[in-house]
Write a structure and sequence with these properties.
Layout (H helix, E strand, L loop, with lengths): L1 E3 L2 H9 L5 E6 L5 H13 L2 E6 L19 H10 L4 E3 L3 H4 L18 H4 L3 H16 L3 E5 L3 H13 L5 E5 L19 H22 L5 H11 L4 E8 L15 E8 L2 E8 L1
Parallel strand pairs: 1-4, 2-3, 2-5, 3-4, 5-6
Antiparallel strand pairs: 7-8, 8-9
Helix pairs in contact: 6-7, 8-9
The structure holds adenosine monophosphate.
The site of adenosine monophosphate has 17 residues, from α2 and β5.
Length: 273
């Protein structure tokens, strides 16, 4: 596995690759969720590129940019073991220029739910992913459904800009007890972790209600809020695949999303019906 930190070195290594390139962009502190993306990329491509870059432009002032977990050495070992060919770990100064051209997330999709709570977050996401796509020129890029809105926006970006890349959505990887894996889980104390479990429990309850025939978004949301009464819920949303709110849940069409604060940690999770 090669590790590169500069644009020039990345370009050189990319230039040597023949055949398909699978790409997994991450912010590091890699866990089993990231690993499932990397494994799938490994299965489906001749070459696998992973980036580890804590992208400053997707953090809002006052968010956890400085304290976001950084685990370079562990990330390197995980990638090496998983058969990654090229690990790109740039500094922000290599990625960003002065007074540069900027992309904007879609006016609706980029500014509801996560985008409403974190205005500008998805602008930073599209900016950095467009840059990384330009550098890596992947045939396939792998993203987790855990970040459902991000996934939809990046699919839109690839469509809207006619990018020659296929976005591959991947299932959310969870701990045995249901907690969705996240680099931010390291912030949770044992007591907070216990309370955080109510997020995946609420989603599971919602799924059971739907399987039992319940279709009312209001009834499902009320039940979910009851399950999550011990934490500070930011939103519960039941939307279609384009994130339009639904009054009635539809199988194979709805996504149920939750954002909540547990102590100082903000967590998101969802299920795709
Ligand atoms: P991040 O490092 O948090 O920016 O995540 C990098 C990629 O891994 C994104 O496409 C995420 O959606 C994906 N990801 C994060 N957590 C999980 C998880 N628990 N299961 C599957 N994919 C995940």
């Amino acid at each position: 596995m090669k590790i590169v930190r500069t644009i020039q070195a990345l370009r050189e290594e990319r230039g040597k690759m023949e055949g398909s390139v699978g790409f997994v962009p991450t912010m590091g502190a890699l866990h089993a969720g990231h690993l499932s993306l990397i494994r799938r990329a490994r299965e489906e491509n001749d070459h696998v590129v992973v980036s580890v870059f804590v992208n400053p432009t997707q953090f809002l002032p006052g968010e956890d940019l400085e304290k976001y977990p950084r685990r370079e050495e562990a990330d390197r070992l995980i990638c090496e073991k998983a058969g990654v060919d090229l690990l790109f770990m740039p500094d922000a100064s290599a990625i960003y220029h002065e007074d540069e051209v900027t992309l904007k997330a879609p006016a609706y999709l980029g500014y509801i739910l996560e985008g409403h709570r974190r205005p500008g977050h998805f602008d930073g996401v599209v900016q950095v992913v467009m840059k990384l796509f330009g550098l890596v020129q992947p045939d396939f890029a792998y993203f987790g459904k855990k970040d459902a809105q991000q996934l939809r926006i990046l699919q839109k970006m690839a469509e809207d800009f006619f990018l020659p890349v296929t976005i591959v959505p991947m299932e959310t990887v969870r701990e045995e007890d249901g907690l969705a894996l996240s680099s931010r889980n390291v912030y949770l104390s044992p007591e907070e972790r216990r309370r955080a479990l109510s997020i995946s429990k609420a989603l599971k309850r919602a799924s059971k209600m739907v399987m039992a025939g319940e279709r009312s978004a209001e009834a499902i949301e009320a039940e979910m809020r009851e399950v999550m009464r011990g934490i500070d819920v930011e939103y519960v949303a039941i939307v279609d695949r384009d994130f339009r709110p639904q009054e009635r849940v539809e199988l194979k069409k709805s996504i149920i999303l939750v954002a909540a604060r547990v102590g100082a940690t903000r967590l998101i999770d969802n299920i795709w019906l």
